[in-house]
Amino acid sequence: MGMPSVLVLNGPNLNLLGTREPAIYGAETLDDVAALCREAAGRLGIEIDFRQSNAEHQLIDWLHEARTHVDGIVINPAAYTHTSVAIADALSAIAKPVIEVHISNVHKREAFRHHSFVSPIAEAIIVGCGTQGYVLALERMATLLAKKVAQ
Ligand code: DQA
């Protein structure tokens, strides 16, 4: 059996990480986050596919592919967290664990960021841990997938 594979999906505006509101999101770029995730994946013995899109339909198409191609999903849906029934539906259609990540503590911010369409579907939610949240999510995902293999 091959290594478990995890799709790490990033939503709109996260391509601007590092230059976008650094007081909220930090100075690291999305490439830095991808490197952090690859380093963690190597250590955890999982494979990752790290992607970002600004387009809702693209994120949904990738989630459809993921139904048959990956073992778990780590997703920062960015603003679509708070707006997209379509992304929540696509995640519901996948019988694989989903972990939701937000770099900032959305609960400390505007009220419109307090609701997530994704949270009811997520196995776990990591907010306000900065980019380390992605590493924490991958660690948790590796634990969940190892349990599945052991069953
Ligand atoms: C975010 C929080 C969202 O409210 C926001 O729209 C983002 C990023 C985060 O990672 O903190 O784009 O998901």
Automatic annotation (TrEMBL):
Keywords: Amino-acid biosynthesis, Aromatic amino acid biosynthesis, Lyase. The keyword Cytoplasm does not apply. It holds the Pfam family DHquinase_II. InterPro entries: DHquinase_II (IPR001874), DHquinase_II_CS (IPR018509), DHquinase_II_sf (IPR036441). Gene3D superfamilies: Dehydroquinase, class II. It catalyses: 3-dehydroquinate = 3-dehydroshikimate + H2O. Substrate binds at residues 76, 82, 89, 103-104, 113. It is an enzyme of class 4 (lyase). The active site is at residues 25, 102. Its EC number is 4.2.1.10. The record marks 20 as: Transition state stabilizer. Catalyzes a trans-dehydration via an enolate intermediate. Belongs to the type-II 3-dehydroquinase family. Homododecamer. This is 3-dehydroquinate dehydratase. The gene is aroQ.
